[in-house]
Protein 1
Amino acid sequence: MTESPPRVVIADDQALVRTGFGLILAADGIDVVAEAADGDQAVDAVHRTRPDLVLMDIRMPGTDGLEATRRILSGTEPDPPRVVMLTTFDLDRYVYAALTAGASGFLLKDVTPEHLVAAVRLARTGDALLAPAITRRLVERFVAHGTEPTALHRDLSVLTPRELEVLRSLGTGLSNAELSTRFGLSEATVKTHVARILSKLHLRDRAQAVVVAYETGLIVPGTGSTARDPRSSA
């Protein structure tokens, strides 16, 4: 049985962006169920249409995309959509805040049509829309400069020693294939470890796992080395 195409809400204050993205996705058979020009409209559209994914502009008048993302992902919906942030800067400080709020990644507004379609389809699988190395670079920049604490701190004592090792390596930017090589495990086993880490720490995806690795002190910003075993203070 063929899987139904993802259902998408596009939230951006520029009508041209909404129309352009909508045409690109529709041409590939992806259903754009609603559009929104600000954060309030985005939240309302999500409640009405129950999409699989929201493409959310960060900077909008009134309620911005960051606050809208928080409201969508912290609500009472049993299966909230993935949220992918739209931005014009790949190191926008708001992107980091959005990741800690639960966004699954970000796309630049000048993304190619092929990349946009691929990203929308990828998000449905639960993968983060950030290469691990890019996530690490983003996190290092803001954690190292004393960004305000977020709500992503987690008790790492729930992890096994091997899971802690995997989280540390994941946080330094290693892909599943690289983790497989480092630990001498199959990629399937690595995926199982990553899934258990996300489940135990109540994280949505790998992007948030990288954030946690830095914010708990498991990795020292700018070095990729371990500061301490955070479980020792639990």
Protein 2
Amino acid sequence: MGRVSQAQAQKNRQRVVATASRMFREKGTAVSVADLMKAAGLTRGGFHKQFVSKEDLVDKAIAHAFEDPTAHSPAGLEEPTGDHEAARRTLIEQYLSVWHRDHAGEGCPVSGFAADLGREPDQGARSQHVYINGVRNRAARLATGDDDGIAQLCTMVGALALARATRGNPISEELLQAARTALTESDSGQCEPQHRTD
């Protein structure tokens, strides 16, 4: 079999990065190179021609996940109407959905890579830098008034992690609903003045 063209090699590399991004979010970065290459439809030998190391691939997979606008939910969570509050509520509803719980490989990289980066904080400066920027960007999309969105993002990521860990039990959906309610119903009380009774 002849050598692949440079264009084909680039396509293969992109396929491996996309496959790794999905598999790492779904199963963690402990996925073997052999399993990863098999899932990408390529041989293991091609890996070392494309990447310096598995850590190099992890860096690229994390970056790819944050660059992919559909890596959040089936609708992509963009702001088509220009209405920030409507987009924020849509993001919350979709993030804390059964679909997102059940599709980690296609889901948000903030929750998808949190456990691996938490276990291996020295995974790589590039990975951590990309991840931190991704966290800040996701939080900014939730920001309202004086709220920078970080606590809201923490609630969403934590609820999603708990829901995934309890999948198969009714509490899983209860956790998602509780977080959705906490994040959307609190909005209605923000503008109402507090009346003292004393």
